[in-house]
Structures
1.
Amino acid sequence: MKRSPRAEYQAILECLITWRKRANITQQRLAAHLGMPQSIISKVERGKRRLEVVEFLRILYALAPDPRPILEEILRATPSLRARTRKRPAASRKAPKL
C-alpha cells in the first residue's frame, strides 16, 4: 500500500516520539540538550515544523548513543519509501586511479 509523503513523515515523527518517551526524555530536556527552545520540539512532534537533516541526526544521537535501532524502526514503519525508490543510478564515470 502506498503512503503519502505526509503519512511517511508522520510515521517517522511517531518513531522519534516513541524513542524519546522510551528514554524518559522530556521535550524540555531534549530541547536543552540540542540548544533550542522546547516549543521547537513540540512543533516538530506535532508536524507543524519540518526537521532539517542535521537536526534529525542530532535528535537521533540525543535519543540513543547508537541511532541504528531507531533508523531500523523508522525503515520498518515506512516500507513505502523503499518501494518507491528506484534503482541506484549508475556512476557517470569511473573513479580516477591513484
2.
Amino acid sequence: MVDMNVQAAKLELMQLILESNDSALLDSLRELLTSYKEEKVFIPLTPDENEAIDEGLEDFENRRLSDLDDFMKRLG
C-alpha cells in the first residue's frame, strides 16, 4: 500500500501542474524528473524545508488550497 502522504503530494503536484500555463516551468519539471529517474539525485532538506512541506500537506489534506496564480503573486 502506498503511503497516504505520498499520494497527497502527488495530487498536490498534479493540481499545480495542471493549473500552470508556464511552458518554461513545465520543461524544467520534466527535466528535473527525468534526471532524477536517471541519476537518483538526493538533495537533503533542511528542517525548515521539511516543516514547510508538512504544512503544505496538512493544508492540502484540510482543503486549504490556493490557485497557482495567487501562489506565484505571493512569491513576488
3.
Amino acid sequence: MASSTKEHTVPESRHETQARTAPREPTTKSAFEHFHEYQRERPEVAALWCFGIGFVLGWKLKLW
C-alpha cells in the first residue's frame, strides 16, 4: 500500500490568516469614523439610540 504524503497545513495563529482579514480593516475603520462623525453632528439622536438599545437589552436580558 502506498501512502500519500500530502501536506495539510492548519493555521496555528492569527498571523497566518492575515491575508484574508486585511481588506476588512479599512471598512471597519471607516464605519467607526462615520459613526463618530455622526455622533458629533447629532449627539441627541445618538444618545436616544443608545438609550433605546440599552432599554431593550435590559428588558430582554433581565435576570429574574
4.
Amino acid sequence: MGAVDHLEGRTALYVCNCNGIRERQVRAAIAAGASRPAEVFRVHQCQPRCAKCVCEIRQMIGESREALRYAAE
C-alpha cells in the first residue's frame, strides 16, 4: 500500500489517497500545530474528498497528544 519515496529511498504510506498526503506530511502538520483534520488539510491546501482518511488523521493527532503528555511528565 505504500509508494516509494524517491527523495528518502524508503516506503512512504499514503494517509489520504485522494489528495496524495503521506503519513510524514500529516505528522509534520501536527508537529506544526494542526489539532484537527481540517487543519491538516488546510496546511496542504486541499479538502477531504471521500473522508476515509479523517479517522486515521484523528488517531494520529490523538497519538501525538498522548506522546506530548508522557513527555511532559
